[in-house]
Design goal:
The chain has 358 residues and is α+β, with helices and mostly antiparallel strands. It has 8 helices and 20 strands. It folds into 2 domains: 127 residues, 3-Layer(aba) Sandwich (Creatine Amidinohydrolase, Chain A, domain 1), CATH 3.40.350.10; 227 residues, Creatinase/methionine aminopeptidase superfamily (Creatine Amidinohydrolase). A hairpin with a 3-residue loop joins strand 16 and strand 17.
């Protein structure tokens, strides 16, 4: 158990008037224990209580090597896992429940009058997980350096006759060669008009001269994700494509230039959106500027128009403006940004200057 992380969550809970909570998000449990969990349909939860030791309710099918036996409450398939919590919960006090607890387990607790009330504790957890500590930052910096190397290698595979699927398969192989645990998400590879779909799945499209080549890639190292997008051109670039690319690049750089503690997420989005709108492409920037990232590719804390939260030291999120012209082309440029005491640190270093692959 990582007591310092537990203490941070307990402090956040206390500020919200909560003395106890059940946490069931497997990624939060990894964050607190160092173990990875995939409980499928079985009950899995960590009970945090003021003045008491944590209790991990874990089916005997699974193991938690980093959790001492004194913290584990085991059960098997002959028992109702959720009901194992009842003797340890203060039924006269509210109980925090996170957003990942399955309704069947929550209903079972409610039917058995487990607590006086049930409160969403996820904001308490999300704010803590959003501020990465030194260990997390080191892992994400390494993962991003790996991503830079992947991008450098995949560029050399862009050639006449190659398909999107072939490059996606090659990306998988490169990540394995570099020691990644897995992909952060299925790699996005787009040629030409396919890049107008921000979440295009690679297919059998064959590369043509003049096509843009968009790579949105990420790998996992030591449980932490990387994410980066770069857009290139094959053989030549048209004047229109160059204009679109340079507009997106200006938006990316402008948003990063104002990143520091206290700036609101929505203001970062607005800065990038202003540049794209002023260039006449506003309707074609169809998504938020970015998302937070860590143990998961997308975590709480979106960099979008409706998030008025201020950024804080330790926050890591993407900055990925894009322009998508249906039936024509698309451009996205994405970095991961770490907020520091002094401003911002960009975790990936692959060049963002317009590049034509010959």
């Amino acid at each position: 158990m990582d007591q310092s992380r537990i203490d941070r969550i307990m402090t956040s809970m206390k500020a919200a008037g909560l003395s106890q909570a059940l946490l069931s998000d497997p990624f939060t449990l990894t964050y607190l224990t160092g173990d990875r969990f995939n409980p499928n349909e079985r009950y899995l939860a960590l009970l945090l209580r003021e003045g008491q030791k944590p209790a991990l309710f874990l089916n005997r099918l699974f193991v938690a090597p980093h959790v001492e036996a004194e913290f584990i409450v085991p059960y098997d398939d002959s028992e109702r896992g959720a009901l194992k919590c009842l003797p340890l919960i203060d039924r006269k006090a509210p109980l925090g429940i996170d957003k990942r607890l399955a309704a069947e387990f929550l209903l079972e607790l409610q039917e058995n009058h487990a607590a006086s009330a049930y409160v969403n504790v996820s904001p308490c957890v999300d704010h803590v997980r959003a501020c990465k500590d030194a260990d997390e930052i080191a892992k994400m910096e390494y993962a991003s350096r790996m991503n830079d190397e992947v991008m450098a290698r995949i560029k050399t595979c862009v050639r006449a006759g190659v398909t999107e699927l072939e490059l996606a398969d090659r990306l998988n192989a490169i990540y394995r060669e570099l020691g990644a645990q897995r992909l952060s998400f299925p790699s996005i590879v787009c040629f030409g008009a396919n890049a107008a779909d921000p979440h295009h799945s690679p297919d059998g499209t064959v590369l043509k001269e003049g096509d843009c080549v968009l790579f949105d890639i990420g790998g996992v190292w030591n449980d932490y994700c990387s994410d980066m997008t770069r857009t290139y051109y094959y053989k030549f670039v048209t004047d229109r494509d160059r204009e679109v690319y340079e507009t997106v690049l200006r938006a990316n750089l402008a948003a990063e230039a104002i990143m520091k503690q206290g700036v609101r997420y929505c203001d970062l989005d607005a800065e990038a959106r202003r540049i794209i709108t002023d260039a006449g492409y506003g309707p074609y920037f169809t998504h938020r500027l970015g998302h937070s990232i860590g143990l998961q590719g997308h975590e709480w804390g979106d960099v979008g128009p409706v998030n008025t939260e201020p950024v804080k030291t330790g926050n890591i999120f993407s900055c990925e403006p894009g322009i998508y012209l249906p039936g024509e082309t698309g451009v996205r440029i994405e970095d991961l940004c770490l907020i520091t005491d002094d401003g911002v640190k960009i975790l990936n270093q692959a060049s963002k200057e317009l590049e034509i692959i010959q």
